[in-house]
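Go through the following before class.
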Amino acid sequence: MEKQDAAPAVAVVGSLNMDVVVSADRMPKPVVDTTGAGDAAGAAFACALAAGRPLDACCAFAVRAASRSVMTFGAQAGMPRLAELGTDAP
């Protein structure tokens, strides 16, 4: 992979084994603590999916949430609020 600011994400959807591959730019912020980043990503993805967003938008939103969460020490303190994730938050 040439570009270091993005990484592919793959989601296998349902029993049809459909694959969706997207890449999303990470936020260029310092990493303080990665604890809870996966939880933030999963919660953001589920939130966007429940709001009816397409899968690529769900992935991008999850990346934003995880990127934001690593900027603060601790899992609870690092959980981003919707207002911190941009105007297109679900």
Summary: DSSP finds three helices and two strands in the chain.
